[in-house]
Amino acid sequence: MLQSVFTRVTERKQLIQDILETSAQKDFYTTFTPSTHWPFKDATSKKCRLLVLDSSFNPPTKAHAKLLETSLKAYPTGYFDGSLLLFSTNNVDKTLTGASVLQRAQMMEMIAMQCPSTAVGFTPHGRFMDKAKYINSWFAETHASSQLELYFIVGYDTMIRLLDPKYYNSTSVKDALTPFFESCRLICADRGTEDVGFWVKTYNTFDRDLIQRIQLDPITSQFSSTLAREAIQQRHTDQLNTILDPNIVAFVNENKIY
Questions:
Q1: pTM for the structure as a whole
Q2: How far is the C-alpha of 58 from the C-alpha of 89, rounded, in Å?
């Protein structure tokens, strides 16, 4: 698996670069899809539920893959048609440092190839409402007669930012997010120790079926990209192998990232 995934992505480097360059002005595009009928399970489906993991992937860790796995298990078997690893090239809270967009696309693809029905996508938009809008627009261009539901996986910190009034000017958070929740849901990954008051307030504002909560195991939940970068910089090989997939470790070492 290591040689196969690593080799396939390495061989696709120029193709990925070409897609990134020719699609740079698009609001949403994919650099990798697992099948010709993705995001549907098959070519006959009319309704599509897409699980979206939006992150910086700098680099992708085992926690990213675990988030997909845990989210899938939180719903009935076969509930989702496919999954999407999404990177926002213009994040509202972060500037691009570390791995380049191309390198992230390659690493994201290595993870996607090992997860069922998972694609890799990019958008220049940082706000969730805009991401949802343009993914829906992309979907409607080729599947006008079908319905798309997006389920965004977010961390607790991202959830706090998403519900922060400072991003919505004079509009209330509920009013601002109502259009978003017409076709989208949120899955929040927390550690079970977060502010109880925050969740009471959140569920007093939004129905529980709009925001699902999941938890990673205590060890995997600590596998952050920041911790991975520190392990790389400090040459803590054993720790790095615990945090990252072997393909990502090989890619980081070969390209001398971080």
A1: 0.93
A2: 12
